[in-house]
Amino acid sequence: MSEISDAPSMPMSRKVLCGVYAMIAAVAFVATWIQNMAYQFVALDFFSSFWRETRVTPASRSVTVDILMFGLAAAVLMVVEARKHGVPYVWVYLVGGLFIGISVTFPLFLIARQLRLNPAETLRIPAKDTVLLILLAVTVLLAVIWISAG
């Protein structure tokens, strides 16, 4: 005999958001690890060479400092939100961010957070914001492709 749950299911808008987060994580994983694997074949001492080369040019230093500071802000947000909404294993996402990439684990954490939010809450994003987010996503994807082709 099956039980019928009275709990509301997650609204479609939040399911779509989780799908977007999943796509971001997947693209980030592929894009970063293609570069990481290519780098591993070049540098015998991957970790020390990698971090040393993040300091080579002002551009590489800028991007490295930017992503490190963004990662720190994301880490604070992740711990606060995990405690607030009962998302388990927040430190797995953070440590995973160090070894896999914060661009992969942060969206995965956001999915876990969405799954913990009140399912009755709907997400309403104005059309203007949706269009601007799509334009931003296309711009970022083009930049990722351009950088990866380098």
- Note poorly predicted spans: none
Q: Summarize the helix and strand pattern as letters.
A: HHHHH
Rg, rounded, reads 18 Å
Portion of residues within helices:
over 70%
Number of helices: 5
Assembly type of the chains comes to single chain
Structural class: mainly alpha
Strand content: under 5%
End-to-end Cα distance? 59 Å
Structural shape? globular
| Total discrete domains | 1
Compute the number of strand runs: 0
Please state the average pLDDT score. Answer: 90
Main sheet attributes: strand count, strand direction, barrel closure = none
Topology:
Blueprint: H1 12-42, H2 46-53, H3 58-85, H4 90-116, H5 127-149
Helix pairs in contact: 1-4, 3-4
Give an overview of the whole structure.
α1 (12-42) runs antiparallel to α4 and α3 crosses α4. The protein has one domain (12-121). It contains five helices and no strands. It has helices at 12-42, 46-53, 58-85, 90-116, 127-149. With 150 residues, it is mainly α. It starts with 11 loop residues before the first helix and ends with a helix. 78% of the residues lie in helices and 0% in strands.
